[in-house]
């Protein structure tokens, strides 16, 4: 009788502990969303053009109401309205969306490649995009002409390494090792081509091409915000659905995954394609902002654990908050000069990452 | 018969690893597969679960051809615990065991899934570890976690690839006791690849001895574990002792040179 009671207590305790454990993960997600809200509110009021915070929120509210009511994009009239609506707001939104996209793609790539250092950049996205942009800037040749010459080129070229890796997996098994090594090989090839291009180009063009590779949110406009939003809304739910399969593949290995009814190779390729597509879309607008896709998932993993079902949304929101905070610092620290956000993410994220690594007691991740 | 393997053949890039394998396992039965390194034990187990696709032959479960099953349908029938199973990322015991529910759910864990997990946690006495990280547990505790994961899967068949490797002798007995208990209680069937002849003898209803990808001998432990068989399969001279109705193997010396 007493043993039975004890057993029942144990059952209740285990269930309670598990639910508490899940609760902690959800708390972190809510915390990250709050962080985004607070910093978005703050960032909107900061800038070299002085506008009173209440006025800022009035303009933002007015802008959204107008866009929703008319179903069209609202054209601001006064300078204040233009600063807030056309400069600050798209920049803030793009920072959040880009941070989310990078972090989600990074978390999934680390998982499927079973590699703590892997990001979509490891699969050649950054060097592909850089070559595409360099061709557009230096040779002024591209897939699409006009306003989207650089963006279009960067997007198409950034996905070439992904498709080469995809082709290789038709000939060779899609193991994490094959994919990482193929990605790195592509990285070297593309960088070499970019270097050759730059070597023979005018110095102004070289400077422009180089600046493109340093990730920067200064190019943020509403079109970029909308494209990034659509990519995120379409791709991240699919990644979330696959998150549990990725848990099993990364932790327990391919054989166990198969014995649980998962096709590890197909899943790996599918996740790679989606993660790269998401990253490429964002990179082609903002350039290669490094570090977020590496660091945001790691910090999140250390805080809430490795279950991808929660890690994907949590590191998404955390990555959004992180990039927004970095960009706010980049805009204000030596105002009126605006630093490229990629520099701030590395300066801030690097030491933060080291600190967390040192404090972490476990030697696995 | 629960499992019937008929004329199974498998080769890694034209090097035959399994040839002409036929075997049968009944309900509530434990069958051990013995043989030296490279005899094809692990390959056989993977072929039965269709983790590897055999070149020829097939496996029947309840007289149904496994080739007609999807990997997910197989996952509902067969649980697999690989050799040296580990979980290489940070995850709690509860989360790892919950993964066994994968064939039954896509994303959302229901109250029933949680109940099943708690049930196996209790069954394998893992209560105090449920929220600990698997990587912090001892080898024996980890092995219990992986058995629990396979049981949470609610399969009818268990495949175990050297379930006792790297465990101390007490834990070896504990793990095999657990396997024996669940196989009898849940009327499952188990096939395990084993290295330890004495443990195989003690815990198996039937033994299959393999050499070079072929079955060399099949039968009850006392029929298969003979000095002659062990000499030809392992190249070791042994003495076989019967005590309390069990068969024990005492290794004497390895044979030199070509012993076939």
Structure description:
The complex is a heterodimer of chains A (365) and B (260). By secondary structure, chain A is mostly helical. Chain A has helices at 2-45, 53-70, 79-112, 125-138, 149-171, 176-199, 203-213, 222-252, 254-259, 264-286, 292-304, 308-332, 341-359. Chain A is built from 13 helices and no strands. The two termini of chain A are 43 Å apart. With 260 residues, chain B is α/β, with parallel strands linked by helices. Chain B has a single domain (3-254), classed as Rossmann fold. The longest helix of chain B has 17 residues, at 169-185. Chain B starts with a strand and ends in a 6-residue tail after the last strand. In chain B, 47% of the residues are buried. At the A-B interface, α1, α8 and α9 of A face α2, β6, α3 and α4 of B.
List keywords for this structure.
heterodimer; A: 365 residues; mainly alpha; ABC transporter involved in vitamin B12 uptake, BtuC; 13 helices; 78% helix; 0% strand; globular; B: 260 residues; alpha/beta; Rossmann fold; 6-stranded mixed sheet; 4-stranded antiparallel sheet; 32% helix
For this entry, what is the oligomeric state of its chains? Answer: heterodimer
The named CATH superfamily of chain A: ABC transporter involved in vitamin B12 uptake, BtuC
- Main sheet properties of chain A: none
* CATH homologous superfamily identity of chain B: P-loop containing nucleotide triphosphate hydrolases
User: What proportion of the residues of chain A form beta strands (DSSP E)?
Assistant: under 5%
Question: What's the total count of β strands of chain A?
Answer: 0
Total number of strands of chain B: 12
**Percent of sequence in beta strands of chain B:** 25-35%
Most extensive chain interface and residues per partner: A-B, 37 and 43 residues
Number of domains of chain B: 1
């Amino acid at each position: 009788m007493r043993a039975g009671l004890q057993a029942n207590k144990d059952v209740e305790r285990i269930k309670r502990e598990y639910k508490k454990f899940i609760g902690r993960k959800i708390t972190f997600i809510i915390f990250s969303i709050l962080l985004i809200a607070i910093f978005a509110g703050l960032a909107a009021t900061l800038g070299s053009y002085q506008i009173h915070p209440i006025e800022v929120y009035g303009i933002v509210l007015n802008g959204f109401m107008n866009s929703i009511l008319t179903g069209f994009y609202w054209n601001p009239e006064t300078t204040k309205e233009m600063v807030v609506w056309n400069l600050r707001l798209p920049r803030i939104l793009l920072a959040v969306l880009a941070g989310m996209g990078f972090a989600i793609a990074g978390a999934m790539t680390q998982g499927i490649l079973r590699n703590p250092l892997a990001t979509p950049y490891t699969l050649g996205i950054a060097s592909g995009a850089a070559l595409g942009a360099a061709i557009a800037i230096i040779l002024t040749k591209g897939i699409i002409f006009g306003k989207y010459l650089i963006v279009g080129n960067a997007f198409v070229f950034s996905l070439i390494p992904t498709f080469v890796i995809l082709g290789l997996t038709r000939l060779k098994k899609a193991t994490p090792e094959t994919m990482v090594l193929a990605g790195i090989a592509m990285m070297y090839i593309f960088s070499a081509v970019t270097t050759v291009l730059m070597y023979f180009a005018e110095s102004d063009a070289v400077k422009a091409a180089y600046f493109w590779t340093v990730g920067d949110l200064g190019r943020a406009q509403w079109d970029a915000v909308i494209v990034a939003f659509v990519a995120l809304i379409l791709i991240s739910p699919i990644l979330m659905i696959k998150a549990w399969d990725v848990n099993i593949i990364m932790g327990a290995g391919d054989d166990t995954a198969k014995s649980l009814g998962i096709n590890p190779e197909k899943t790996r390729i599918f996740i790679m394609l989606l993660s790269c597509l998401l990253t490429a879309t964002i990179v082609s607008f903002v350039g290669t902002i490094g570090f977020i896709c590496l660091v945001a998932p790691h910090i999140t993993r250390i805080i809430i654990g490795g279950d991808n079902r929660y890690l994907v949304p949590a590191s998404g929101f955390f990555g959004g908050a992180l990039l927004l905070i970095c960009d706010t610092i980049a805009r204000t620290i030596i105002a009126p000069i605006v630093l490229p956000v990629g520099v701030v993410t590395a300066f801030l994220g690097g030491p933060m990452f080291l600190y967390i690594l040192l404090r972490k007691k476990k030697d696995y991740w | 018969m629960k499992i019937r393997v008929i004329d199974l053949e498998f080769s890694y890039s034209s090097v035959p690893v399994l040839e002409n394998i036929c075997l049968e396992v009944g309900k509530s039965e434990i069958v051990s597969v013995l043989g030296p390194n490279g005899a094809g034990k692990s390959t056989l187990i993977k072929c039965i679960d269709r983790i590897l696709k055999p070149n020829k032959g097939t496996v029947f479960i309840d007289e149904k051809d496994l080739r007609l099953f999807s990997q997910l349908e197989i996952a509902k029938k067969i649980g697999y615990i690989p050799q040296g199973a580990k979980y290489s990322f940070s995850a709690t015991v509860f989360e790892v065991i919950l993964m066994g529910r994968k064939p039954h759910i896509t994303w959302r864990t229901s109250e029933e899934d949680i109940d099943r997990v708690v049930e196996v946690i209790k069954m394998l006495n893992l209560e105090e570890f449920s929220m600990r990280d698997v990587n912090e547990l001892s080898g024996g505790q980890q092995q219990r976690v992986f058995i629990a994961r396979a049981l949470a899967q609610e399969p009818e068949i268990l495949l175990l690839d050297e379930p006792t490797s790297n465990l101390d002798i007490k834990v070896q007995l504990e793990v095999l006791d657990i396997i024996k208990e669940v196989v009898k209680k849940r009327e499952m069937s188990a096939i395990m690849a084993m290295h330890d002849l004495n443990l195989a003898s003690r815990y198996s209803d039937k033994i299959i001895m393999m050499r070079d990808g072929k079955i060399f001998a099949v039968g009850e432990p006392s029929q298969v574990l003979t000095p002659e068989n062990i000499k030809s399969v392992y190249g070791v001279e042994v003495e076989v002792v019967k005590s309390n109705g069990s068969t024990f193997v005492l290794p004497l010396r390895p044979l030199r040179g070509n012993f076939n």
